[in-house]
Design a protein that fits this description.
Layout: H1 4-16, E1 22-26, E2 39-43, H2 55-70
Antiparallel strand pairs: 1-2
């Protein structure tokens, strides 16, 4: 997400919903030399499904994709061979 305050608000909402280990971290180097930073909302929770293609997994992927879109971000699941969704 491009705005840290928005990313922190999203992380707080997810935490209040019961997701565990939610944190906001800087994406890293500025994006494509533009000087713009981005913030990543990491959600790690042993209760989350880890099988791509399953109903629960796909439902959360859709939900997190939409949440990211609402905040001008994108969703990228590490290990998922599909490209990040915007």
């Amino acid at each position: 997400m491009p705005d840290r305050a928005e990313a922190e608000a999203v992380a707080e909402d997810l935490d209040e919903e019961g997701f565990r280990q939610v944190q906001v971290v800087p994406e890293g180097e500025s994006r494509q030399g533009s000087g713009e930073s981005a913030w990543v909302v990491h959600v790690r929770d042993t209760r989350l499904p880890d099988a791509a293609g399953g109903g629960a997994y796909e439902g959360l992927r859709e939900r997190f994709t939409e949440l990211a879109r609402e905040h001008d971000g994108w969703y990228d699941e590490p290990g998922d061979p599909r490209p990040a969704t915007r």
